[in-house]
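Hey L., structure's done. Input below.
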Amino acid sequence: MNCHLESAGENIIDKGYDESSSRRSSRHNIRSNVIYSNNIVINGRRNSIFHSIVSLVFIFMICDQKSIHTSFATDTTQQQVSHIFTVNQLRTLDVMTLINEGYHKDNQTLSVSINRLVDKYPKLVESFSIGDSALGRPIVGLKISSSKQKQAAQVTAKATSQDSKPGVAIMGGIHGDHALGHEMVLHLAAFLLEMYASDGDLRVTKLINYADIFLIPTLNPDGFELATEGDCNSAKKRSGRTNARDVDLDQDFKFHNYNDISSVLAINSLQPETKAFVNWIVTSGKSVQLFATLRTGYTAITYPYDEALDQITEHTYGLIHASTSPNAAPDKELFEYLGHHIFYQYQAEPLNSTCNPLSSNVTVMDGAQLGSSYGTLTDFLYRFTNIFPVNIHLDCCKYPPGKSLESKWLQHANSIFAFLESIELGIRGTVVDRSNSKPLQGARISIGHDQRNVTTDTNGKFWRPITPKQSINLLLEADGYQSLTRSNLTGSSLDDVTGEINILSPVNFKLVPLSSQNKEDAITSGEAGEISNQIDKGSTSAKLKPDSLYVNVDKQLAKLDFKTPTNLHSHHNNSELETILVNLQKQYPKISRLYSIGESVNGRKLLVLEISDQPGVHQLMKPEFRYIGNMHGNEVVGRELLLHLAKLLLENYGTNELVTGLINSTRIHLLPSMNPDGYENSVEGDCESEKGRANANGVDLNRNFPDRFGLTKENGATQPEVGAIMRWSHEYPFVLGANLHGGSLVANYPFDGNGKKENGLYTAAPDNELFIHLAKTYSSNHRTMYKGEHCYDICGPDKASLLNERFSDGITNGASWYVLYGGIQDWVYLNTDCFSITVELGCKKYPLAKDMPRYWADNKKPLIKYMLEIHKGIYGLVTDQNNQPIANATIHVKSIEHDTHSTEMGDYWRLLLPGEYLVSVSKNGYRTAHRQVTVGKYGSPAKRVDFSLSSGPKDLPPGEMLPAGGDSESNQKNLAINNNKQSTISTATGQNYEANSKNTTSNQISTAESHLQHNGTTLTVDGSRLLPETQDTKYLLALCFIIVLPGIMLLVYLYGSSNGKRYSSKLGFYKLANTTPDDGIDDDDDDEATRFMRRSAKANRAAGGEHGSDSEDELYSVDTWNRN
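Output:
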C-alpha cells in the first residue's frame, strides 16, 4: 500500500514574514494548511471525511508510526504560526533607534532612552521609579495609558477613568544577567507608543484604551551592569545574576509566614529591591492584574508554583506537553492556555531550542519542574495579590550579543503583544452595596471550590481571567452581605479570522446587606409561621436568632477582645487546665457548667465546659455545638485555643452583641483535652515527633473508632477516651463540631478512608458540598490557611516535604490527602447527626510558649465564624397528629443519602446549603410527610420547617418504593441506628466542679406539649397541607379519585348495552372492523388511534393472511372479539 499524507508541512514555517501578506493573517486559514487537513489523499483518491478517518486508522497500522507521531505531535509553534504585525510594521523608527544603540546597561543610556520616549509622547507615557537598588541605582519604568491623554484634554474633570482600567505589567528581568528582556521591554514601549500615536494599528489602540501598561526594564540594575554581553551561560560564574549584596532577588519573596502585604513591608531583612517592588505593587501598581517576567536561559513559559521537591524528570506529559505536576496552581488551565494558544501561537519561527527542558520546543508548565525554588516573585504575586503571573523564558543564551537584538525582537514581538492582549480575557465588573450603591472593597469572587479567589479593589472592581468561551458559575461573597450566585457566565471569545479578543461588557453586581434581608428568608415560613413566634417564647425553647449572628459579623469580631488580662504566652498542664475551667465556671455560673464525660487510661477526667444561657438543659430547637482539642497529646495548640475561646465568650456575654446572640441561641460544649495522658508525655518545642501522640496504652485515638471498612489492628479494643467520646456523641444532639489537630495547616473533611486503601483518591461523603463549605468557612477566615500554602512554622527533618504541601483554598478531602481508618470524623458523620471536620492548626505540634499569641490571632475569627454555621439550613419540630413530639424521626433530603433524626423532644436540625430541597420525615408507625423547602442564600438564617405525622403504614418519599414485605435495607439500617441512639442528657454528679446535669426532659416535653396544645392544629404541616382531622379522609379520597372513579369511567366507555351486545361503533373501531385494505379510506380522515390500529391490521394480514395469526393485533379486531 502506498501511503502518504497530503500536507502543507513545507508551507507551515516561513522563515520570516511575507511582506506582501496581510498583517492580520487568519489563524483559520493557517490552520487549514497544517497536517490536520479535512481531506487525506491515499493512492491518489480524495475521500470524504468519514473515509479519511477510516484511512487514517490504516495509516497508523501500516506506516511508520514514529514518523506519523512526529507529524501529529509537532509543537504548537510549527503547526499554528500566525502573526499580528509584519516585519515592516515591527521595524518602526523608534524601535530601530533603540536596537541600533545596543544594550542600555547603565543609568545614563537607559535614562536618555526613556526620557526620549516621554518627551516625544507626553500625553501617552510617563516614567516612574519604584525605588533604589542596593547601590542606589533607580529602578525605573514606563506607564503607557490613554487616561493620561484624556486627563490632559479634560483638566477640569473631577475624575477620570484611570482608576477603573485594568493593568498589565512586563518586567524585563529579575536576574541582572538575563539581559534580553531588558531591551525587549524598551523596544515594546517604543513600538506601542509609535503605533498608537500614528493610528497605525487598531489592536494597539484598542489595547491601550482598555488597559494601563507598566513596563519595567529590570528589578536588578546593579546585577545588569555587572553582567557581560555575549555570556550565554553565566550561571557558572553567577556574573550579574544576584544583586550587589549577592542575594538572588527571586528567592527573597519568602512571605509564607506573613498574613498580608502590610506585614511584609515591615520586614527589615528584605533586600531594597524586593521591598521597593512590594511597596509599588500595593500602591502605584495596584491595578496590575496580569504580569510577566522576561527571562533567558531556557525557552519555556512557567507559572506558579515554583516550590516543589519533584524535579522535571519525575513528571510525565501529554502530547501538548501540559503540566501534570501536582504542584501546578489552581489556574493551571488558564496558564496553559496563555502559553500554548496565546504566546506560542505567534512565534515567527521554530525555536529549535537545545536548552528546552522538554523534547518539544514548546514548554508550558509549573515552575517547580525547572527545579524547586522557594520565595519567588511569581509565587508571591499569585498568593498575595489579585495578579496572575507567568515567567516567559525567551532564549537559551542569557545575554545574547547586541547584533542579534533585531532578530530577537522580530521573533518575539508578536507573542509578547498577544500576551498583553490577554488582559482582555475573562470577566470584569463592579460590586456595590445595593442599599447605597457604594463600591465594596474586598468582596470575594469565586468560580469553584478548587479555584483561586480574587477580590475587589478600593473601587469595588474586579477582573477574573478565564479561557475563551469557558462557562462558569460565579459566587460573590462579602462580610455582612448576602452572597450572590450567577450561573453559566461565559468569558471572552476569540475572533476566528483575526485572532482578536472580543471584550465583554462589565458584569456589575449589587449585594444586599444582611440587615435588609427579605422577610421570606427569615426563621419562619408557610404554615409554621404562626406558631414559630409563640413557641419560641417558651422558657424551654431557644431564643429567636438575633440579627447579630448575620449582620456585620467581621466588624463585631474586630472589636471583640478579652475584658481582663489574659496570658497568651504560656502552656497549661493538666492541673492548671482543670483550675482554669473550675474558675471560669465559678465566675460565670449562670451561663456555664463543667462536667466530665469519662476518664483517661490513667484516670484523668475528660472535662467539658458548657456555655449556654441555660446550662445543663437541652432547650427546644436550640442546636448544640462542640469543639474537641488535644486528641493527640503532643498536638497542643487546640487545647490552648479552647481555653482562650471559653474565656473570651464568657467575659463578653451581655456586652458584645455577637457573643450574646451566639450563647443565647447555641449550646456550646468545649473539650480542651481528649488525651490528657498523652499530653503529660509531650515536650514543649517538639515539632513532629510521636512522643505523647498516643494515649497511655500507646494507641492512636484517631485510629481507634469503629470504621465502616471493618476492624484494624488499632481499633479492635476501644480505648476509654474513645468510648467516652462515643457515649457523649449519642447523649447530646450535636449538630456541628470540629476536631483540632496540629502537624499541617488545612481544614480536612470526610471521608478519611476508602475501599481501595489508596492515598490521593478523593472519597466524597454524601454531603460533600456542605463539607467543602464548612471547611472553607474555617480556612477563609484564618489569616493564612486560605492561601493554600504550606504552614509558616515548618520544622523538623521533614521540612522539605512540608514545603511542597499545599491545599487549594486551605482545605482537603481526607482520603485525597492520605487515607486513615478508625478516625473520629468518619465515625461521627456515619453514626450521629453531627457534621464534623478536622482542623490542622500548624506544622509545629507543640510550639514554644512565646509563639502561642500568633496562633490565637490566626484562629480567633475562624473559631467563632465556624460556630455560626450551625444556624444554616433548616430546623423545626416533628409531632404526631395529637401534637405530641416524635423522637428519632428520620429526616431525609432527596438526593442526599445521609439522614438526620429528631431528638426526644421532637426538634431537629439539618444543615443545608442554599437551594431547593424535597425533605421527607418518617418513622415506623406513621405516614411519611413531605415538604418542598427553599434554603435562603449564604448569610441567611436557618429556616423553620415543622412536620406533623399521622399514624398509619409508613410510606416513602416520592419516587421511591419499598420492596415487597417491608422496609428497604437502608431504612432497616437507619432504624437500627435510631434504636441505638439515645438523645438524653447525661447525669454527672458528686464533684465540686460538676453541676447536677440530670435532665429535666419530662418537664420540658410537658411544657412543649402545652404550647403545642395551645396552638391546636395550626402546627400540622406536611406535603398534603391538610389538618390532622382530615388525615385519614385524604387517603380515602385519593383512593376514590385515583382508582375507583377512573375505573367506573373506563367501564362506561368500553361497555355499552343494547340487548346485551357491545357497540363497536361506539369504540371507534367500526370502520376498522368493516374495512379491507383496498377500500381506499384515507388515513387522514381517522383519528390517531384508528390509523394506528389499521396499520396493525394491515401488517397482520400481510404476515399471516386475511385473518392472520393470533397476534396482539387481533385484539383490535371486532371479528376477534366476536369469535371470543
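The mean pLDDT is 75. Residues 1031-1054 form the longest helix (24 residues).

-- N.
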